[in-house]
Amino acid sequence: MVDQQRLWDAEVAQSYDTPGEGMFSDDVLGPTVGVLAELAQGGRAVEFAVGTGRVAIPLRDAGVQVVGIELSTAMVARLREKASADRLPVVEGDMTTAHAGEGFALVYLVYNTISNLLTQEVQVECFRNAARHLAPGGCFVVELWVPELRALAPGYRGTVEVSEPGYLLVDTVDTLQQLIVSHHVRFDPEITGSREARVGRSPHRYIWPSELDLMARLAGFELESRWADWDRGAFTGESRSHVSVYRLPAQS
């Protein structure tokens, strides 16, 4: 069992935010917040694995009341440097079991984070916990990457996902268990402070879109929409990721 507290420790939390760049850029956050605010329809929202508040803080600024659930105390501490508990409450705990209340209009889980849950069983429990938080007719939004197994050469169990100056991302794949370990290799002396490379590893369980849909059905959801991105681009066989919107039945 992976110790998520050690994986998402103070060092990671302090280096997580990249204001204005990457996943913190306006080009990424603007469409994300816009879609989530629309889906909330004026109601309250819960973010599973709220992290340092990358999405929750601008969504709150957009007028949506947000409660976070987060397992890592270090990530919560970093969030608290930016938003008070009154403005953005956080329940510390596992997103498969922690409870932040009931009657929410929206639960969301972004940036591939459901893959941090390393078995199918606990991934299904994440869906069930989302359902417990929602009012009838509420929706659960999941952002997730599509496994690039076609990039695996015969006889090989790994792919180079990113290769750029000072950084290399190599994924090793266990297709039997649907597990990927991402190896983040940093070797820029200006960043690492050393001529030696630093390696960080994070494990993930990948989920095919059809498997994700079945998990949703087990928890009482129906797939409402699936896009390739937060701009609502068409999802195709070539899409590298998807944003999936699942909805509970409304009361009759």
TrEMBL record:
Can you give the residue ranges of the Methyltransferase domain? 46-138
Q: Which residues span the membrane? A: none
Record GO terms (molecular function)? methyltransferase activity
**Entry keywords, A to Z:** Methyltransferase, Transferase
Q: Which residues form a coiled coil?
A: none
Name of one Pfam family that matches: Methyltransf_25
Q: Which CDD domains match?
A: AdoMet_MTases (cd02440)
List, alphabetically, the InterPro entries matched: Methyltransf_25 (IPR041698), SAM-dependent_MTases_sf (IPR029063)
Instruction: Name its GO BP terms in alphabetical order.
Output: methylation
SUPFAM superfamilies xrefs:
S-adenosyl-L-methionine-dependent methyltransferases (SSF53335)
Put simply, this protein is called Class I SAM-dependent methyltransferase
